[in-house]
Amino acid sequence: xxxxxxxxxxxxxxxxxxxxxxxxxxxxxxxxxxxxxxxxxxxxxxxxxxxxxxxxxxxxxxxxxxxxxxxxxxxxxxxxxxxxxxxxxxxxxxxxxxxxxxxxxxxxxxxxxxxxxxxxxxxxxxxxxxxxxxxxxxxxxxxxxxxxxxxxxxxxxxxxxxxxxxxxxxxxxxxxxxxxxxx
Length: 183
What we know:
By secondary structure, this protein is of the alpha/beta class. Helix content is about 55%, strand content about 15%.
């Protein structure tokens, strides 16, 4: 599970990251804008995004539109901001909060995320057009350079993905990178 922390002031994001690390969580990205968060989220598979109400380039609801349902959201803000949130899918934590409140909220979010992920494990993965394009490019390259059929190239990517514990799009990006192709 990936965790992204987004606050306009990078120091605040780093403070949240420090608290989470002490609580046993690994934070994958610390960002100061919505654009940075979107880039980080696209590089990662899915997880939890922790943000404040307003970022320099967008508000939390715009991030939510781009990243739901791949990411669960924890909105940190004033009581009025939390009460104004537009969807019940976004968990809110009002400021000021105590460290244990943040950690308990993360525990609940993590539990719900992992439970949902386990439940959806048997369902086919829905990928973005960009992810499908990267996978297609990697398969085409493997077919051309290694004289594989499309099915063999796909199985090769799946096997590497499982062995490395990475998603299929991540594995395809690695194959393209290793074979000298630039995205």
